[in-house]
Fold this protein.
Amino acid sequence: MKERSKITNANFKKYPLIKAKDMPKPKILLVEEGEEPGPYGAKSIGEVAVVPAPAAIINAISDALGVNFFHMPVTVKDVIEVCTNANNAGGGNTKI
């Protein structure tokens, strides 16, 4: 901790950790605001869960076909084109 710009805890061994009893009581504040672009004025909080899904799907397709994709979204046309190029170059999965 600092007292008048002097460090009083030179290491973590003596550093005081905050305990539950030292925490201030949380103040819960509900904000009711409509979000115009969303359905029924709702706000979404699920974006974090959907971020890794497209990359996981692309990686699964890449592993299954033995080819790589370097952009998203990947369409059926992209899959056919990449697989055809891989086969013509002698690489990729020959079962396609």
